[in-house]
Write a structure and sequence with these properties.
Elements lengths: L1 H54 L3 E4 L9 H28 L6 H30 L2 E4 H34 L4 H4 L2 H27 L8 E2 L6 H7 L5 H34 L4 H29 L8 H25 L2 H17 L1
Parallel strand pairs: 1-3
Antiparallel strand pairs: 1-2
């Protein structure tokens, strides 16, 4: 009995050992299979990433105005003349302000800064629009598109802040004439200008950096004549909810903060004008204020229509027409309304022309 028992124990030990080896082999095989599956998955992920990188939009197409492309030559000429007139008018303001020491006052320094921003603002957009009118759709690289969007928003925001500063300057000059020299001196004026540029830069840099982090997988056609930030956000294949909220909040802050300052300043100006004793002085003051308010209404109205609305997707086409008001119409009106109707500017121009004749 004992030998049989020992043999059965040995057989059982052999069987158990063999089973253990089989189990270990199966486990090793499973591990190898899992590793291969993992390698396959990693390879697939690499392929997918490579494909996605290849399909990432490297350039955009500016659509322009396809409905009126048959009038391209006429529109090119009209917008070219408007652009040249705007640039010449604003450059004239800058030149006269810095050439004539009598105009180196806070009012005209703010105006020359405003004119400088206007020149840059329209130069960023209009030349590309002229090319679109001549040749149709135009491509623009991704980095150039972001640069254009940043420059457009940065200078646009600076213009609105400068308008608020100009309104504040006129309020102090008209409503607080005795305190004006002590409050609004050249140092304060330069600080205001620097503050407008710095605040605009900080706000717009944050927004454009946020947009640059979005993914763009197509389509690549921008339904606009420049790289508008709203159109870019809608073309992204990422989740753009937070970016849209950020853009809405920052642009609303720029528009409404400057608008509140402007409204308060001009309301006080109107009240002061109403108390002027002479009817002729009141009429002259109201004539100047009304022209200023027309330009302000055009600029704020078009920007509110473009950027401050709950659903921009429904009105992307109409944004182009509204943007033309800011990029073509108001830059053409600003030199005429703000300074070229001013007697001091007229006198400075006459003196400059007289000096040129003497040198000849």
């Amino acid at each position: 009995m004992t030998p049989i028992y020992v043999e059965s124990i040995g057989e059982r030990s052999w069987f158990v050992g063999r089973k253990k080896k089989h189990i270990i082999k199966e486990a090793i095989s499973c591990e190898l299979h899992l590793d291969q599956s993992k390698l396959l998955t990693d390879r697939e992920m690499d392929i997918m990433t490579k494909v996605r990188n290849e399909t990432t939009v490297q350039e955009f197409i500016l659509e322009g105005f396809p409905a009126v492309q048959h009038l391209g030559s006429v529109l090119f000429l009209v917008h070219l003349l408007a652009y040249l007139a705007s640039v010449m008018g604003n450059m004239l303001i800058i030149t006269i302000t810095w050439a004539d020491h009598r105009l180196q006052t806070p009012m005209y320094i703010l105006l020359s800064s405003f004119s400088f921003c206007e020149c840059g603002f329209i130069t960023i957009v209009i030349p590309k629009l002229l090319v679109i009118f001549l040749l149709g759709r135009q491509t623009i690289p991704f980095t150039d598109c972001l640069t254009q969007a940043f420059s457009f928003l940065f200078l646009g925001a600076t213009i609105f802040f400068l308008m608020a500063a100009m309104s504040l300057d006129r309020y102090l000059a008209i409503c607080k004439p005795l305190h004006y020299p002590s409050i609004m001196n050249l140092r304060i004026c330069f600080l205001l200008v620097v503050f407008c540029y710095a605040l605009s830069f900080i706000i717009i840099t944050g927004l454009v950096v946020k947009v640059s982090q979005l993914s763009f997988c197509g389509p690549s056609v921008i339904p606009h004549f420049f790289c508008d930030i709203g159109s870019l956000i809608h073309l992204s294949c990422s989740d753009t909810r937070s970016t849209e909220i950020l853009a809405f909040g920052l642009i609303s802050f720029i528009l409404f903060s400057s608008l509140v300052v402007t409204i308060i300043a001009y309301s006080n100006i109107v009240v002061t004008i109403m108390h002027l004793p002479s009817a002729k002085e009141r009429q002259k003051a109201f004539s100047t204020c009304s022209s200023h308010l027309i330009v302000l209404s055009l600029m704020y109205g078009s920007c509110v229509f473009i950027y401050v609305k709950p659903n921009q997707m429904d009105r992307l086409d109409s944004n182009k027409e509204a943007a033309l008001v800011n990029t073509v119409v108001t830059p053409l009106l600003n030199p005429v309304i703000y300074t070229l109707r001013n007697k001091q500017v007229h006198q400075a121009l006459r003196d400059a022309l007289f000096r040129v004749k003497l040198h000849k």
